[in-house]
Structure to design on (233 residues):
């Protein structure tokens, strides 16, 4: 990325923080499923910010940051599958593992047989396939902050980046990009690490079937994102 590149800040509300989208585990934060529009248009050097929801299982955290990631790599989902097999095998879901992190692996599409991938057992199912693959790209960050159920409140001068409801903000965030980056990088938290647990984790540990309900909701949201498309403020 050129030194004079002016990054775009994409912000959206993340109502289902389950550790899958984004997936902050194993040293990198990845956005590979959900948010198909952002995955298509965001570029290396851009930032993505997920803010909390009034529907969060912990409380109303709509003015808080759940995660923020600077995109350091962008690749096709097929290349991501190859990359995970070689370098990040734990991103591939293992439904039989006793490790929650393996349940929420986001490398759920296997391109071994070509361009028509098979879906592995994981947090999404065939009902999500069209929207997931419609995003075309996997976004990877080696420069991220993940807060989960320990979100941090935005200062008043940055609350305009909050997207209320479906979709995302990008163009209207232009006046706040530098201030946001300066603010987030001054936080007293460890870079590229887990500073909180996924908000939905306790529910999933009690009932694995809850993933199915969440996958339906996320598919509905992805469909709405596509309808809204690039007509973002």
């Amino acid at each position: 990325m050129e030194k004079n590149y002016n990054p775009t800040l994409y912000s959206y509300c993340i109502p289902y923080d389950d550790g899958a989208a984004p997936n902050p585990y194993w040293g990198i934060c990845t956005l590979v499923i959900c948010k198909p529009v952002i995955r298509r248009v965001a570029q290396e050097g851009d930032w993505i910010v997920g803010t909390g929801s009034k529907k969060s299982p912990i409380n109303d955290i709509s003015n808080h940051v759940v995660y923020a990631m600077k995109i350091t790599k962008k690749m096709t989902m097929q290349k991501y599958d190859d990359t995970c097999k070689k370098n990040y095998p734990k991103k591939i879901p293992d439904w039989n593992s006793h490790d929650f992190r393996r349940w929420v692996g986001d490398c759920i599409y296997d391109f071994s047989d070509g361009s028509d991938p098979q879906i592995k057992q994981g947090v999404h199912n065939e009902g999500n396939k069209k929207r997931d693959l419609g995003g075309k790209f996997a976004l990877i960050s080696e420069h991220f902050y993940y807060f989960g159920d320990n979100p941090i409140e935005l200062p008043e001068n940055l609350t305009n980046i909050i997207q209320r409801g479906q979709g995302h903000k990008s163009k209207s965030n232009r006046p706040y990009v530098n201030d946001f980056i300066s603010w987030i990088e001054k936080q007293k938290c460890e870079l590229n690490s887990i500073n909180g647990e996924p908000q939905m984790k306790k529910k999933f540990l009690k009932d694995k079937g809850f993933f199915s309900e969440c996958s339906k909701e996320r598919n509905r949201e992805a469909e709405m994102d596509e309808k809204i498309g690039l007509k973002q403020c």
Q: What stands out?
A: Residues 97 and 132 are 24 Å apart (CA to CA). DSSP finds seven helices and ten strands in the chain. The mean pLDDT is 90. The longest strand covers residues 64-70.
